[in-house]
TrEMBL record:
Keyword match Phosphoprotein: no
Main localization of the protein described in the UniProt heading: membrane
Compartment list: Membrane; Mitochondrion
PANTHER family named in the record: ATP SYNTHASE SUBUNIT ALPHA, MITOCHONDRIAL
Known partners and oligomeric status: F-type ATPases have 2 components, CF(1) - the catalytic core - and CF(0) - the membrane proton channel. CF(1) has five subunits: alpha(3), beta(3), gamma(1), delta(1), epsilon(1). CF(0) has three main subunits: a, b and c.
Protein's name according to its UniProt entry: ATP synthase subunit alpha
Annotated ranges, domain ATPase F1/V1/A1 complex alpha/beta subunit nucleotide-binding: 121-345
Domain ATPase F1/V1/A1 complex alpha/beta subunit N-terminal span(s) in chain numbering: 1-64
GO molecular function, one term: ADP binding
């Protein structure tokens, strides 16, 4: 095919007969792209990388393959970009298999209800909003409320659990997907993990703020494909998407440039499907299919504590519960700043250890009663003796 027009990371290409939706293409300059819009006259292609080298009239080749990324144990300890290319300067990846980025989530028969605990090592989470292996638990809060801290602490705390693990089925591998974060933040994170020797069981997928929107959109799916390798081979993995609101913004940018009609808050109509097809892939496999699991901890940043905005409500309805963090609690020195009243775990209690269940039954009730009394105590001075 030939490039008709190019700009803002979107190329319109004429030709390319019989191309599949979501197929990789290669431009003459060596830059890759993915075909998202198949229209009557031309194909709308989003470019993975800089579009400055692409000119009108350039040749575009089909690769014949849907986007795939490397997966396997060779990835552990590495930092890769959204296409699975190492960016940590430690050479190419050793032996690995390749997995499709977009696959269908496991069906109902292939699943099993969540019953094993996924310990985060944070008492507030493990006691009040317990998470099971194969669950999806949303971490939601304003900026600077310690959302990433909960996620990273969870990875670091797997260190002592993994060192005690006797078999492959007890180890928990971690995948951390950084979407639209500063490069310095990602570098800092790599340093924290390597100093704690936590990189040996972790994979980092980074699509930083300086990367083009298509890569920020793709990164969660790439990370998910890497996590699914463990899930489908009878192992357990945890994947953290930090954060999905940035992915939605990147997707909105791509969609508007592709001239798709905007909906609420200018997001495209399928932004719900964007997140649901991603989070549905976190599951607990049945014993027949190897009993592996993939646990997801998506992160959403709210604006001024507004949990009822479009993206937060969408993701809350997809996940199996949420951990709500609040600025006010954070500044009062309660960290992790979890609002126990708003945070729930819809399947986690089934996965809690017996001992933990006995300990944590009463504090929940006591905290609820405390909040009730505290609300009344505010009027204390206004009430007369009657």
């Amino acid at each position: 095919g030939r490039v008709v027009s190019v700009g803002d990371g979107i190329a319109r290409v004429y030709g390319l007969n019989e191309i599949q939706a979501g197929e990789m293409v290669e431009f003459a300059s060596g830059v890759k792209g993915i075909a998202l819009n198949l229209e009557n006259e031309n194909v709308g292609i989003v470019v993975f990388g800089s579009d400055t080298a692409i000119k009108e009239g350039d040749l575009v080749k089909r690769t014949g393959s849907i986007v795939d990324v490397p997966a396997g144990k060779a990835m552990l300890g590495r930092v890769v970009d959204a296409l699975g290319v190492p960016i940590d300067g430690r050479g190419a990846l050793s032996d690995h298999e390749r997995r499709r980025v977009e696959v269908k989530a496991p069906g109902i028969i292939e699943r099993k209800s969540v019953h094993e605990p996924m310990q985060t090592g944070l008492k507030a989470v493990d006691s009040l909003v317990p998470i099971g292996r194969g669950q999806r638990e949303l971490i939601i809060g304003d900026r600077q409320t310690g959302k990433t801290a909960i996620a990273i602490d969870t990875i670091l705390n797997q260190k002592q659990l993994n060192s005690k693990a006797t078999s492959e089925s007890e180890t928990l591998y971690c995948v951390y997907v950084a979407i639209g974060q500063k490069r310095s933040t990602v570098a800092q994170l790599v340093q924290i993990l390597s100093e704690a020797n936590a990189l040996e069981y972790s994979i980092l997928v980074a699509a930083t703020a300086s990367d083009p929107a298509p890569l920020q959109f793709l990164a969660p799916y790439s990370g998910c494909a890497m996590g699914e390798y463990f899930r489908d081979n009878g192992m357990h993995a945890l994947i953290i998407y930090d954060d999905l609101s940035k992915q939605a913004v990147a997707y909105r940018q791509m969609s508007l440039l592709l001239r798709r009609p905007p909906g609420r808050e200018a997001f495209p109509g399928d932004v719900f499907y964007l997140h649901s097809r991603l989070l549905e892939r976190a599951a607990k496999r049945s014993d027949q299919t190897g009993a592996g699991s993939l646990t997801a901890l998506p992160v959403i940043e709210t604006q001024a504590g507004d949990v009822s905005a479009y993206i937060p409500t969408n993701v809350i309805s997809i996940t199996d519960g949420q951990i709500c963090l609040e600025t006010e609690l954070f500044y009062r020195g309660i960290r992790p700043a979890i609002n126990v009243g708003l945070s729930v775990s819809r399947v986690g209690s089934a996965a809690q250890l017996k001992a933990m269940k006995q300990v944590c039954g009463s504090p929940k009730l006591e905290l609820a009663q405390y909040r009730e009394v505290a609300a009344f105590a505010q009027f204390g001075s206004d009430l007369d003796a009657a």
